[in-house]
Amino acid sequence: MKIAIVGAGFSGSYLAHQLHKKGHSITLFEKSRGVGGRMATRSMEQTKVNHGCNALQTKTEAFQSFCELMVQKNLLEKKDAHTYTASAMNTFLKYLSQNATLKTDTLIKKIVYKNNRYTLTDQNEVEHKDFEFLLLTLPAPQILNMDFELEEHLKEQLKTVQYESVATLVLTGKTLSELDKIQLSKINSLKKISLQNNNTYVIHMDKAFSNQHNHLNKNAITPYIVNEIQRVVPNFKLYNYNYFTHLWKYGFTSKPLNIPYVYNEKRNYAISADWLMGESVEDAFLSAKKLLEERF
Fold first, then answer.
1. pTM score > 0.85 for this model?
2. Residues 47 and 132: beta-carbon distance below 8 Å
């Protein structure tokens, strides 16, 4: 079966891997420049920076087994009994998606189902045709914003899903050692700060700050983060560092649907994502696993 998957985060990449193993032909569409979603990794001064999720926590035996398999393939490292990390978190997503036809920088704007086939139209008005099945792994608001015919009751369900945003500033450079992590940890609006590779700080702002500023683009939000840092480190100057800012508008699910997946047998599409069950990568895994077990 020829299957289109929209979204190349964990859910999309894992589904691509498993469905390829079942003999299906997979095309994976991603609006960004690479796979990863909130498990994104970016190169910066010859360093890999995990500016989204930088560790996986396991609660279920199934997800633990999956992570152990990734360790055996040298794609993840085991930190403790239930925590797994990697120097580049998107590496194992590249592995999972390697057998799919990957179309990056491709934002799907419109989806039409006609004569038992799907046609997907991207931001450049290019049509991708003749798919027999459609899988959506995007955040609920992005699904609602697409030109795609959904049942009214499903639209209403998707509208109930709520998210918390996360604004992130990444700093690196020769003067990084002059920054005191203890002082930075006193930032009033801080969610978490991590030191990666001994030369990069990843600063995640808390939900109150991030939600307040999530209407701004990443460039416009930067001065507000700098202002928060200068409250505790008055001599902080952004121009002393190499940096980038990212806004995870749909960073964490605060109100999920509490169902494992959405499946429409009549129109041959399904939705699988973390926000259906919770907020974690494990929730994304369990959603995809349940869908695969029961429908494929």
1. yes
2. no
**Nearest in space to 52 (alpha carbons), one of 222, 194, 161:** 194
Contacts of 100 (CB under 8 A, 6+ apart): 5, 16, 17, 20, 26, 27, 28
AA letter at 158: L
On the question of pLDDT at 175 being above 80, the answer is no
CATH code reported for the domain at 2-42+84-160+256-295:
3.50.50.60
CA distance 149 to 169: 37
Domain segments of the chain as ranges: 2-42+84-160+256-295, 162-253
What is the token pair recorded at 140?
Answer: 């609920």
Strand 41-44 and strand 108-114: the pairing is unpaired
Written as one letter, the residue type at 49 is: V
Give domain 162-253's CATH number out of 3.30.70, 3.40.1350, 2.60.40, 3.40.50. 3.30.70
- Model confidence pLDDT, tens digit, residues 250-278: 999 999 999 999 999 999 999 999 999 99
